[in-house]
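Subject: sequence -> structure tokens, single chain

Hey, anyone have a minute? Need the predicted structure for the following. Not urgent.
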Amino acid sequence: MRKNDVLRRTLTFCADSFCIIAGFLLSIFFCHPEASNSENYTDFQAVVPMLLILMALVGAVMKTYRKPISENTAHSILMSVGAFVVSLAMSAGFLILIAKRQPNIGFFVNLGVYCSFFLGVYRLAFLRKTGTNRQAGAARKSHDTIKRDFSGVPIEELLGRDAVKTAGQETGSYIAGSTVLVAGGAGLVGFELCSQILQLGAKHVVILDINENKLLETVTELSLNYPKSRFTACIGSTQDRARLREIFVLYKPQTVFHAATYKHVPLLEQNPQEALKNNVMGTLYMVEMAIKYRVGRFILLSDDMVYNSTHIMGASKRVAEMLIQRADEWGDTRFSAVRFGAAVGSGGSIIQLMKRQIETGGPVYVPDRLTEKYMMTVPEAARLILEAGSLTNGGELYTLDMGTPVNLFELARSTIIKCGLRPDKDIKIELTGRQPAEKGGCESMPKENAAKTLNGRIFVLKESENPPMTFEMVFDKLCQSIDDRDYGSAFNKIGVLVPTFVLQKE
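Reply:
Had a minute. Here:
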């Protein structure tokens, strides 16, 4: 707490305490039978109540640290005037109607002192409580108020469009009665997939994730709506071949959703080798198990940022897509991949980050005024992924219609406003500049590269997005380099497969 705030609160406490103590002592003095014998009795009666009210007003002014300065002051003045109007009316009525005598000025003053006393008690107990929630420099809402305001805002309002409804029974015919494995099922998109899969009538859902705490939260949440016998939580990593083999042998899944790839660009730029181990090798091990144990369908969750990607996140996921496309020729499993944009509400999503920044009083950080992103709600992403799985014949690379990209600067402003606050006044917006791997806008897939499916919001990419003829040879060398921990060579192989990739130098 700053020194000025400490000083103001100390003076306020002293002023209100004086109101209470002085009001109490003087009330006793005026009510004493011998008080009227004092020569200064009339002077005290006239001056002290006004002094008490003046001190109450001073306390109110000091309590309103800068903005908004009128609220507590106006409240205190209203209370003071109201107290004396009520005291005049009550005392006059009492004297005229009950005591049958003319009003006496001394009676009014005595009652006024009592009103001042109770007013001081009220202000010290109530106004101090509300005043301490004022933060210096701005009128800010509490954490709970912002959370409540924000939770009541439909995500569609922030995205500027309607969301897709959850999956219908016709979509889930390949899900009903089957065993489904969701790798990365403890993530928000993974959890929503598990929930909708259970809703579609899956016999059993196997939830694989390396995050123990999130996995526990997932099964606890699912158990509120579904019998525990219908799902199983498995702790494990897609990078662990032996663990994957155990799971595939034990549960024999007929459909696999692979949502366990890494997705956060800044983190992966700092740890590029982890993108190789998880997004490339983890996907390879999942593909091997799916083919070996005769999985019917395998759907990889990819990202819209893989198109012409310059960063390791997008490049590694693009290699995973190529692997999926080529793996469709290696066995009976029908492989496909689905690209979609940022899931609003998922861990680390831009809106969740903005919300936390607003709750802590700001500022909200955005790269610049021009940066845009494609965004979807978590339920609609899961619904379209499930429907894409129903459409696949093998080898398809799907992309979802995500509407118009959202400007992050305008999104920050609208999010602040939806929380009942004022951009640049209550909450500041700061421009941080783009990171080297970030693009200023959303470079979307050209429409001529994709064809509509029966679902108007799902597109299948054409042959121009197929892997190069030399994919297997380069991919084998890439995997060998990763196994040998020769990451320099591995990044060079990524550059061969994804020519737009540029390794960021520290």
